[in-house]
Write a structure and sequence with these properties.
By secondary structure, the chain is mostly loops. It has no helices and no strands.
Length: 44
């Protein structure tokens, strides 16, 4: 995978495993495992 200036990836130290850090689950709703933050504060 390559990235360009239009594809900046933000590295989140404790990225949510459910939504991969985007804060949105597969149904395009706010991710319940990270409360929409993209950071899993509930542990894995």
């Amino acid at each position: 995978m390559t990235t360009g200036p239009d594809q900046n990836l933000t590295v989140i130290r404790y990225r949510c495993c459910t939504c991969n850090g985007i804060g949105v689950d597969s149904l395009n709703n706010t991710c319940v495992d990270c409360d929409g933050s993209g950071i899993d504060s509930h542990g894995a």
